[in-house]
From TrEMBL, chain A:
Keywords: ATP-binding, Nucleotide-binding, Transport. Residues 3-236 form the ABC transporter domain. CDD domains: ABC_Iron-Siderophores_B12_Hemin. It catalyses: an R-cob(III)alamin(out) + ATP + H2O = an R-cob(III)alamin(in) + ADP + phosphate + H(+). Pfam families: ABC_tran. Required for corrinoid utilization. Probably part of the ABC transporter complex BtuCDF involved in cobalamin (vitamin B12) import. Probably responsible for energy coupling to the transport system. Belongs to the ABC transporter superfamily. Its EC number is 7.6.2.8. It comes from Methanoculleus chikugoensis. PROSITE patterns: ABC_TRANSPORTER_1, ABC_TRANSPORTER_2. It is an enzyme of class 7 (translocase). This is Cobalamin import ATP-binding protein BtuD.
From TrEMBL, chain B:
Keywords: Cell membrane, Membrane, Transmembrane, Transmembrane helix, Transport. Gene3D superfamilies: ABC transporter involved in vitamin B12 uptake, BtuC. PANTHER family: ABC TRANSPORTER PERMEASE PROTEIN MJ0876-RELATED, FERRIC ENTEROBACTIN TRANSPORT SYSTEM PERMEASE PROTEIN. It comes from Methanoculleus chikugoensis. This is Cobalamin import system permease protein BtuC. Required for corrinoid utilization. Probably part of the ABC transporter complex BtuCDF involved in cobalamin (vitamin B12) import. Probably involved in the translocation of the substrate across the membrane.
Length: 255, 370
């Protein structure tokens, strides 16, 4: 196991948000956390690199307890891609180089620069490397954000709704990158998602959250009309086309 | 993760070199400005002689340090340079660097382009402290028989009280942010509120002050780099250099915070701690400068933005760039202030905005460098 989450709970003030969250993940797996708005998907993601400190439970990466580690150590193990990041007057290269922060001592070394260059090439950003990120589109910015998390050389990648504001082409490109990275390297990825069809297409493990607890968890077979209706309150049917499974919402009255 | 096949891109190295050249150019400009600033004034001294006097003066002083029996034989030029103009010019450079670096740090810490020692109320707190000292503690008076001779008969008490109030303002801001969580909005709003509070307090005291006290308070409030003795200059320089080094050492943390709090935390930055320590350091350097020299606005707010327009937001270049720009702007302002209405000498605070505002507006209109 590369990631072990055991009994994680979190509450804002006194209201519990998530509780009893337990799952694990192997290298090369992509986990999609699904569920309606406000159910605690992002909270769970932030608990997993202690941006929010879980009130109970443990998060282990390759057996090492994250809750006992300091921030820098965590940052060398977990890369986090937030839903949106601020774009100042910085070049793409420098914005990605920032991802080397957990490894940088006083100044960047040639090794850091080499790693950034390789990551930019992997994401096909090399021609943009000296462009300023405040002049970039949402899709390009998201790629920069992912590149930044990759050069952290983490074992686990966390992505908070990586495709929420992107067009179809960019969604496929970003998720393709995540899948390529997890397939080629010894890492696992966890992402929160709204688009069930994209999740079915790119993830291989699923967690459906309902009222702050795991309603269903497992492989693609847990994404059934029953679980989706229970979690989202929307009647759906799950169809197949050329081997792809996709979710079609039904009108409530016609169900 | 393996990125073993990376190469070092030459275009990026060229880009980095260009940034370094900008800063180096600024340092060279600052040096020339220093010589020019010392050479102009009531007695004109050719720049070459200024340079010689500075070099000889340094050699002589090292000599004196090694042989305590040696006697200095300063010429009149040496006296003007070493006793009057050099400390004033260096005070301008040090104050400019300190205020500017405090401003750039506050802007990053508070995630707000309006962050500066002035906007956060630290300068106004210092002014209020000076007013308290002069009016309530009676440390200031004006000799009306001699023209142009306002004296604070106990400047050290005034400086100390001003310094205490600067620190008080910082403590209140930090305390409020502690209670409400160290969010940048809370810090900025608390600073604005404090600023108004201290301004109102100063006005209240001034209303009941005598003419001489009022003159002394107003005199103190006009920031003036001519006030600094060598000893005070030493204290300011020490604090400014230490603070600048601290901020430069934290440049990657500020870059991370600029990318968003969550990104920064994900990159291993303890955002709250970096914010709190940074605020204390920035406030301390502003407090030292304000309490020795008085209120000098504008530099801390605008220099970082000028540098942003020239070399971008990357803190690796922005922090040192702001230091250099702060020194240049305040030294240039002080030089002009000394000669513009000669034989009278204006306090530099009057001139900073006069010189800086047009340049700043031009840079805003022009936008970023391509």
């Amino acid at each position: 196991m590369i990631l072990d989450v055991d009994g994680v709970a979190f509450n804002y003030r006194s209201a519990p948000v998530i509780r009893d969250i337990t799952f694990d993940l192997r290298p090369h797996q992509i986990l999609a956390i699904l569920g309606p708005n406000g159910v605690g998907k992002t909270t769970l993601l932030k608990c997993m690199n202690t941006i929010l400190r879980p009130k109970a439970g443990s998060v282990l990466i390759e057996g090492a307890d994250l809750l006992a580690a300091d921030r820098m150590e965590i940052a060398r193990k977990v890369g986090y891609v937030p839903q949106r990041c601020e774009a100042g007057r910085m070049t793409v290269f420098d914005a990605v180089l920032l991802g080397r922060r957990p490894h940088i001592g006083w100044d960047v070394t040639d090794k850091d620069i080499r790693i950034v260059e390789a990551a930019l090439r992997m994401l096909h950003l090399e021609t943009l490397s000296l462009r300023y990120i405040d002049e970039m589109s949402g899709g390009e910015l998201q790629k920069v954000s992912i590149a930044r998390a990759l050069v952290q050389e983490p074992r686990v990648l966390l992505l908070d709704e990586p495709t929420s504001s992107l067009d179809l082409k960019n969604q496929i490109e970003i998720l393709g990158i995540v899948r390529h990275v997890t397939a080629e390297h010894d890492v696992a990825a966890v992402m929160t998602m709204h688009d069930l069809n994209m999740a079915l297409r790119y993830a291989d493990r699923f967690i459906l959250l309902k009222d702050g607890v795991i309603h269903a968890a497992g492989g693609p077979d847990v994404v059934t009309p029953e679980t989706i209706e229970a979690v989202y309150g929307v009647p759906v049917t799950v169809e197949r086309y050329n081997g792809f499974r996709f979710v079609v919402p039904l009108e409530p009255e016609s169900a | 993760m393996h990125f073993a096949d990376g190469t070092i891109p030459t275009d990026y190295l060229g880009y980095v070199r260009k940034k370094h050249l900008w800063i180096l150019g600024g340092v060279v400009l600052l040096f020339f400005l220093l010589i020019v600033s010392i050479s102009v004034g009531a007695v004109g001294i050719p720049p070459y002689e200024v340079f010689l006097s500075i070099v000889n003066g340094i050699v002589d002083r090292i000599h004196l340090l090694l042989n305590p029996d040696a006697v200095l034989n300063p010429t009149s030029t040496d006296r003007i340079v070493w006793n009057i103009r050099l400390p004033q010019a260096l005070a301008a450079v040090v104050a400019g660097v300190g205020l500017s670096v405090a401003g750039v740090a506050m802007q990053s810490i508070l995630r707000n382009p309006l962050g500066s020692p002035f906007t956060l109320g630290i300068s106004n707190a210092g002014a209020f402290g000076a007013a308290v000292s002069v009016i309530l503690l009676g440390t200031g008076q004006m000799h009306s028989t001699v023209a142009d001779a306002v004296t604070l008969n106990n400047p050290y008490v005034t400086t100390m009280v001003a310094f205490i109030f600067c620190l008080l303002a910082t403590a209140v801001i930090l305390l409020i942010s502690r209670i409400r969580g160290a969010s940048p909005e809370v810090m900025v709003l608390a600073g604005v509120a404090l600023s108004s509070l201290f301004t109102a307090g100063t006005m209240f005291l001034q209303y009941f002050a005598s003419d001489t006290q009022l003159a002394a308070v107003v005199f103190w409030t006009f920031g003036d780099v001519g006030r600094a003795s060598w000893q005070e200059l030493g204290i300011m320089a020490f604090v400014t250099i230490a603070a600048s080094l601290y901020f430069i050492a934290n440049r990657w943390n500020y870059n991370a915070i600029d990318a968003g709090d969550e990104t920064a935390k994900g990159l291993g930055v303890s955002v709250e701690r970096v914010r709190d320590v940074g605020m204390v350091v920035a406030a301390l350097v502003s407090a030292v400068i304000v309490s020795f020299l008085g209120v000098i606005g504008f530099v801390g707010l605008v220099c970082p933005h000028m540098v942003r327009r020239l070399i971008g937001d990357d803190q690796r270049y922005l922090i040192p760039g702001s230091c250099v720009m702060g020194g240049i702007l305040l030294l240039a302002s002080d030089t002009v202030a000394r000669i513009i209405v000669a034989p009278y000498i204006l306090p530099v605070a009057v001139l900073t905005a006069f010189l800086g505002a047009p340049v700043f507006i031009y840079l805003l209109l022009r936008g970023y460098r391509r």
